[in-house]
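Can you make up a protein sequence with its C-alpha cells?

===
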Amino acid sequence: MHIDWELKQNWNLDLAFLLKIVAATAVLLMSTQAALAQATPQQVLRPYTINPGDDIEVYVWGEERLQRVIRILPDGTFSFPLVGKVNALGQLPSQIEQLITKGLEGQYRGQVPQVTVSVRSPSGLQFTVAGKVNSPGTFSPGRYVNLLEAISFAGGPAEFAGLDNVTIIRKSGNGLITIRARIAAAFKGSMSARDLNANAIPQIESGDTVIVP
C-alpha cells in the first residue's frame, strides 16, 4: 500500500508538471501569433476605378430597357438612356451608380429603382513597356501592378538594360509628367525591406509608358 501511494504521488506530480508545460506553451504560442499579426500589416487592395476601354454592366432593377453592357469611350464617358452623357473616368462603380440614379430622378414620381454597376471587363487598364526588355508591347493585366511587375510582363529586362534609369511617362491632364526609378537592386534581390516598404517601387497607372534604356 505504501508503494502504491508513492507511485500515485509521483504520477500526480508528473501530471501537474505536464499541465504547466502545456499551459506555458499555449501562452507563448498565442503571444507569438499576436506579435506576428501586429508586425505583418494587412494588405489593402486598391479599389478599381474606371478607365477608357473598360466594359461595364448597368442594371436598373425592374427596368429591362435600362439593362446593358457599355464600353467606356476614349474620353472616359458613356451615354445612358434618359440620363445622357456620364463621366466615368476615374470613378468607382458605386459613384457611377449614384450619377445614373441622380440622372433618372426626373423620370420617376417616387424613388428611383436600385442601380447596380459592375465591371464586366477591365480591359481599359493598359500600359506600354518599351526599350531594353525582352518582349516590348502594350499589356492589359486586369489588375493594378507596380513597375517590377510591368517589366516582368514585358519578358524582363534585356542584357545591359539601364535599370537605374527607368522612366515612366504618365498622362496628367492635357500634359505629360515623367517619373524616374532606380530598380536594379530590386531585380538583383538586394533592395532592403525598408526601401520596399517605403514605396520605392512606383505603381503603374493606366496609360503609362515605361521606357527601359
In short: The domain at 55-121 is CATH 3.30.1950.10 (wza like fold).
